[in-house]
Specification:
Elements (H helix, E strand, L loop, with lengths): L2 H25 L11 H8 L12 H45 L1 E5 L7 E5 L1 H47 L4 E3 L4 E3 L1
Antiparallel strand pairs: 1-2, 3-4
Helix pairs in contact: 3-4
Amino acid sequence: MSLGRWASVHAMNRASIATTLVLAAVCWPAGPASAQQTSAIAEAEASPSASIVTIAPSQTSQEHWLEVDLEEASQRSRRTRNALIATSVTFAVGAILAGIGASQCEQITSSSVQNYNDLSCNTAGDVLLPLGGTIAGLSFVGMLTSGIMLGVSNKRKREIQRDIRRGQYGRRLQWDIPSGALVF
C-alpha cells in the first residue's frame, strides 16, 4: 500500500471515529427512548430514585407460554395434515391420468434379438401417460415429505402436551441412579 493511500485511509478512519464519538457525546444525555409512552414510564422518569424491580416468572407465565406453543404446534400439525391430504389427492389424480393414458396405448412386440417391447400410443396416450406419471411421481415425493413432517409435528405437539400435564400434576418421584437417592 502506498504512503498516500495509507494516509487517506488513516484519515478516513480518524474521521469516522471522530464522528462516532461526537454522535455518542450528543446522544449520551438524551436518556432512554421508548416507542410508547405510558404513565408508568413517565412516573419512573419523574423520580430519579425509583428502582427497577424484576419479578421471577410465575408458574402461570410458563403455563401460558406452553399453551401458546401448543396452539402453534396444533396449527403446524393441521397445515402438514392438509398438505398430506392434498398430495395424496394429487397422487391419485396423477395415477388416474397415467392409467387413462396407458389404456390408450398398445404394446408392440418386436421380432429383434433384444426382444424389446414398445408402446404405440395415440395422441391422448402420448400426453396423458407422461403427464400422469410425472404428477404421480412428484406427488409421491410430496406425500413422503409431508408424512414425515406430520409425524415430527405431532411428536412435538405430544411433547408440549406432556410438559403441560407435568406442570399441572407436578413431577413424579423417581430413583436417581448416580446419586442413589429419590428425587422429584
